[in-house]
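Is NAP placement plausible here? Inputs below.
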Amino acid sequence: MSEEATTILHMLDPRKHVSPFDVNMAADAGYKVIVPYTGVEIADVTPLIQDAIFSRPPHYGVKTGFFMGGKDALLALDMIDAAKKAMVPPFECSVFADPAGSFTTAAAMVACVERVLKFKFGRSWKGTRVAVFGATGVVGFASSIISALEGAKVQLVAHRGFDRVVKSAAVSKERFGVDLEPVNGETPEGKREIIKNAEVIFAAAAAGVKVVSREEMDLAKDLLVIADVNAVPPPGVEGMELFMDGAPLAGSNVLGVGPLAIGDIKYKCESGMFKQMLSSDKPLALDFRHAYAMCKSLTGLA
Ligand SMILES: NC(=O)c1ccc[n+]([C@@H]2O[C@H](COP(=O)([O-])OP(=O)(O)OC[C@H]3O[C@@H](n4cnc5c(N)ncnc54)[C@H](OP(=O)(O)O)[C@@H]3O)[C@@H](O)[C@H]2O)c1
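Reply from A.M.:
I modeled the complex. C-alpha cells:
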C-alpha cells in the first residue's frame, strides 16, 4: 500500500439514489473515491462499517468516511449511532450526516439570523420567539432543534395535520430535551395569530411555496428578522430577495435573510465538514451540532 492512503467516501442513502449535490461537494472537498449505496436500511449500517474498517490498517481509518444522506433527520442520526457502535477500536472511520442537506442548511439559517439578531438588535436566541413554517420538513425540523438548544422559544407551525407537529415536539423533547410548542396554522386566522406573535420567522416550506404574505408580515409588530430558505420562485416570504443578509424588506422594518445568503454559508459548511473529516487525525462523527458550530465560525459569531 502506498504511504498516502486514498481518501474514500461511502455514501449511504435509504432512497433510490444519493444526492448529486452531496457527491459533488465531497469530490470538490477532496475525496478521491466516492461510492454510493442506495436503499440502505438501518440494519445494513453495522456490516457496511465493519466491512470498510477491517480492510485498511487502523491509521488509514481517518481517510475512510461514511456519509448518511436520505430525507429523514432521525433516521440519519440513528445511522450515525449505529455506525459509532459498529466501530472496533483501533479500527474506526469518520461519519457525517446531512440528510437532504438539512443539517447544514438549518445550521446556516440559524447562524445567519443569529448574526443579524446580535449585530442589529443586540439580541441572542435566549428567549427569542421563533415560528417555524415547514416544521414537518427536514430543514424546519433541524432548525427548530438548533435554535431551541440555544434558548429560543420555538413554535412548530402546522399547515396540515396538527397531530404531526405535536408528535414532532414529543420526539424532540425525548431525543434532544427541547421544549417545542406545536401551534395550529391550518386556518388563515390561526396562521395570522402565530405570525403576530413572532420575533423571528423561519420559512422552511417546500420549494416554490409562498408561506408568508406581505399582508401577514405587516401584522407582526414584534417581528425582527425573517429568513427564507426557498430559492425557487415565488419566494417563501413575499418580497424576499435571494441575497438579502440583514437588509430590511422593501417598505418594512423587518430584516430579511434570503436563501442565497443562507446557501453561501451552507455550502461552505458542508464543504468544511468534509474537509474536517479529511484532515482530522482521529475519527469524527458529525451531525447538525457540528454543522452549527462551523456556521457560527463562518458567520464570525465564534
Ligand atoms: N437555501 C439553501 O441552501 C437550501 C438547501 C436545502 C434546502 N433548501 C430549501 O429548504 C426548503 C425545505 O426543504 P426540506 O428538504 O426540508 O423540504 P421537505 O422535507 O419537503 O419539507 C417541506 C415542508 O414544507 C411544508 N409545506 C409543503 N407545502 C406547504 C404549503 N403549501 N404551506 C406550508 N407548508 C408547506 C411541508 O409540509 P408537509 O409535511 O405537510 O408536506 C414540509 O413541512 C425547500 O424550499 C428547499 O428548497 C434550501
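Short version: Residues 8-97 form a domain with the Rossmann fold fold (CATH 3.40.50.10280).
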